[in-house]
Amino acid sequence: IFMLIKENSSILIPIDFSKQSLIAIEQSYNLAKFTKSKIIVMHASPNSNHEHQKDLEEIVANIKKDSGLEAEFLNLKGDIYELIDPKAEELGCALIVIGLDTQVRFRSFLGATNVSKFIKNAPCPVITMRSKDNRNSCANILMPIDLSAQSREKVGIVVQLAKYYNATIKIVSVFSPSDEKYENELLPYLNQVKKYIKDRGVACTNKSIPSNSPAEAIVAYANNNDCDLIVLMNKRDLSIGEMFGGAISTKIIETSNVPVLTVNPMKRESISTGIH
């Protein structure tokens, strides 16, 4: 059973008027068209819900003019990182797209906890982007995969995106150089996933990388292979021996200059573990 990004819904884009957050808006146009979504721009200020009203009206007018998409804005009072998830939930959003500032700002200004917390609790998939290049097309999608059941839940979304953009899916798996057993179990599984994807008419490659620092290996692979998006599963609780723990996802989000789409596991996972 695979998850998909909802169509005919809305994409929530939190902004703080930094260059990065404004690029995130333009980068969402194609995805919004493919998923027939409305764009909702959201701004929050600790002091009032009237700040930047004019700027927000202008941004929405520009979105409509440049993309022909439906758009609206929310101007809220409070901490944007605390408001994103409840708003996305309330509005039934299909996706959250957020431009994060460069790494230094990310750590000092926000503290990694804020961002990783909002991503972990998001009611829908989240795209984070920190590069200043505007990538409107998407030719290669990188899908890191491991042997956990949750890892494969994202396959549906990756195939959906590949079909929208006519992209190639690059599967990558990172294993510890000392763990041959894991590598041997991984290969037949990767071939199975690859076959599933190819059967759906999508081009696909796979690569196994021996490395003890999976986050770095994945980001390096994405850069060396012209990837336009990395799709990660955000695992809440991990058994020992699984490679892509929450810490690794967070590290990829923090360091990747390639946009990252983070998908939370399906709710049934969390019910069985008593975590809601």
Topology summary:
Layout: E1 10-14, H1 19-27, H2 29-34, E2 38-45, H3 53-67, E3 71-77, H4 80-91, E4 95-99, H5 103-120, E5 126-129, E6 140-144, H6 155-165, E7 168-175, H7 180-199, E8 204-210, H8 214-224, E9 229-233, H9 246-255, E10 260-263, H10 267-273
Parallel strand pairs: 1-2, 1-4, 2-3, 4-5, 6-7, 6-9, 7-8, 9-10
Antiparallel strand pairs: 5-10
Work out the number of β strands. 10
Structural class: alpha/beta
Radius of gyration: 18 Å
**Apparent shape:** globular
Strand order of the largest sheet: 3-2-1-4-5-10-9-6-7-8
Distance between the termini: 20 Å
Main beta sheet, described?
10 strands, mixed
Give the oligomeric state: single chain
Spans of at least 5 consecutive residues whose pLDDT stays below 50 are: 103-110, 237-242, 269-276
Task: Classify the beta-strand content into a percent band.
Answer: 15-25%
Describe it for me?
The structure is a single chain. The chain is of the alpha/beta class and 276 residues long. Helix content is 43%, strand content 21%. The chain has helices at 19-27, 29-34, 53-67, 80-91, 103-120, 155-165, 180-199, 214-224, 246-255, 267-273; strands spanning 10-14, 38-45, 71-77, 95-99, 126-129, 140-144, 168-175, 204-210, 229-233, 260-263. A 10-stranded mixed sheet has the order 3-2-1-4-5-10-9-6-7-8, with helices on both faces. Helix 4 (80-91) runs parallel beside helix 5 (103-120) and helix 8 crosses helix 9. The longest helix is centred in the last third of the chain and has 20 residues, at 180-199. The chain starts with 9 loop residues before the first strand and ends with a helix. The relative contact order is 0.14.
